[in-house]
Amino acid sequence: MPLLDRYGRVARDLRVSLTDRCNLRCSYCMPPEGLEWAPDDTQLTDDEVVRLVRVAVQRLGVTGVRFTGGEPLLRRGLVDIVSRVRALEPDRERLGLSVTTNALGLSRSAQALADAGLDRVNVSLDTVRPETFLKIALRDRLHDVVDGLAAAQAAGLGPVKVNAVLLRGINDDQAPELLAWCLERGYQLRFIEQMPLDAQHGWDRSAMVTADEIVSRLEERFTLAPAAEPRGSAPAELFSVDGGPATVGVIASVTRPFCGDCDRVRLTADGQVRTCLFAREESDLRSALRAGADDGELATRWVTAMRGKAAGHGIDDESFLQPDRPMSAIGG
Fold first, then answer.
1. What predicted TM-score, i.e. pTM, was given to this entire model?
2. C-beta separation of 329 from 268 below 8 A
3. Closest Cα partner for 161 from 120, 133, 192, 116?
4. I need a labelling partner for 210 at 20 to 30 A (CA). Which of 72, 166, 193, 290 fits?
């Protein structure tokens, strides 16, 4: 049975958060002092993660699984989880596996993840200037991210994708520089509009760098043209760079939302189904799982949860309220 919502959308892309913990303190995600992490006994075990992913893949038609956080490389069982999920469906055309990471530990784990069956990585990187990286993330770790990206590429985890958020007055003048850096190394860059998912609830739409501004900045140095391939359910609007074949993407989650084509569903590290990043309600699978529910019941609960998915995130509505959970506790 597919994960079908009331608006005819089918969720085939599952984002699985493996932890709410992170070893950076990016200003658009969490405060400098960090957050109070969720108690260990509320977090899904490795076996529970694999079981719920199995239900999603074998009963609910999921064809892509992305492991997120917090920072998923902090999950000690990550490589084993990837290996066990890959064993559910060895055919990579039928099941794609990826990780979204800050890449701090990727130089040590990229090859093991590739050997376990991971297909690719998405790496968060907002700047290639060490001083700006320190200002945003409050950690002097740019060199570790650069090494992690190179290790992922060497391990065959490609195409290596880079996700960047521009912050006004901090790195919004660095978009062309970051794109040139990624093009030189063969990485695929995607800029993401800053979303209201920070723990501090300090997001201000008027201060957000918009997709139109991002494109304008890039066009100061590059010639961009809409990419020929159809976008489908992908969140990024692609542009060819200087005639191609290289592309750059812009994810305009706020100013040009793509909710009508959304095919994603999220599972938090504590076993809650979230039908949207901005949902204010969740559906509890962990309690049912630990109470002895069989796979059929878990699948039914998941399908029921999807029926409650809203038509859109509603950021432009006057009644919009930011989710109680920040991004680190939801999972990208």
1. 0.93
2. yes
3. 120
4. 72
Q: What is the pLDDT of residue 320?
A: 63
Q: What's the full length of the chain, in residues?
A: 332
> pLDDT value at position 319?
58
Residue 291 to residues 5, 43, 189, 287, 326: CA-CA distances in angstroms? 26, 15, 44, 6, 28
pLDDT, residue 214, reads 97
Query: What is the C-alpha separation between 71 and 68, in angstroms, rounded?
Result: 7
Q: What domains appear along the chain, each with residue ranges and CATH number?
A: 13-152+251-330 (3.20.20.70)
Q: What local confidence, expressed as pLDDT, does residue 71 receive?
A: 96
**Residue partners of 30: CB distance under 8 A and separation at least 6:** 22, 198, 199, 200, 326, 328
- According to DSSP, residue 205 is labeled G
The strand pair at 237-241 and 247-251 is best described as antiparallel
Q: Which amino acid is at 65?
A: V
Confidence at residue 11, expressed as pLDDT on a 0 to 100 scale: 96
**Which pLDDT score is estimated for 100?**
97
Amino acid at the residue 12: R
SS3 for 22-89 is: CCCCCCCCCCCCCCCCCCHHHCCCHHHHHHHHHHHHHHCCCCEEEEECCCHHHCCCHHHHHHHHHHHC
| 101: region left, alpha or beta (phi > 0 left; psi from -120 to 50 alpha) | beta
Reduced to 3 states, what is the DSSP secondary structure of residue 135? helix
Q: Which of 76, 72, 71 lies closest to 26 in space, CA to CA? A: 71
Whole-number pLDDT of residue 197: 61
Distance (Å, whole) CA 101 – CA 67: 9
**pLDDT attached to residue 332:** 63
Task: Estimate the crossing angle of helix 78-88 against helix 106-116, to 10 degrees.
Answer: 20
